[in-house]
Amino acid sequence: MSLEDQHTDRKSLRTVTGKAADWDALAKDCVCFANSAGGRLLIGIEDGEAYRLPGRCCVTCGCA
């Protein structure tokens, strides 16, 4: 299951830190969300990296 959809986008910390920061890509995502129904940018999550919701072992399961 992908965490990215029309309302959610993941960005690496490398996108917003250091000399290689890609501020244009971040601004583009913000503008896209602002022009639509809004959304969430999850900064600090690499592509292919699992994201855990607080209190759960994974995104897809409902365990606590």
Description:
With about 60 residues, the chain is α+β, with helices and mostly antiparallel strands. It has one domain. The chain is built from 1 helix and 2 strands; from the N terminus they run βαβ. A two-stranded parallel ribbon has the order 1-2. It is flat. The model has no long low-confidence stretch (mean pLDDT about 75).
Give a quick precis of the structure:
This protein is of the alpha+beta class and 64 residues long. It is built from one helix and two strands. It has one helix at 23-35; strands spanning 8-11, 40-43.
Helix content: 10-25%
Radius of gyration: 13 Å
Low-confidence stretches: none
Number of helices: 1
Distance between the termini: 19 Å
Order of strands across the biggest sheet?
Answer: 1-2
Structural class: alpha+beta
- Proportion of strand residues: 5-15%
Order of helices and strands: EHE
Largest sheet: 2 strands, parallel
Query: What's the domain count?
Result: 1
Report the principal-axis shape: flat
Mean pLDDT: 75
Task: Record the SSE blueprint.
Elements: E1 8-11, H1 23-35, E2 40-43
Parallel strand pairs: 1-2
List keywords for this structure.
single chain; alpha+beta; two-stranded parallel ribbon
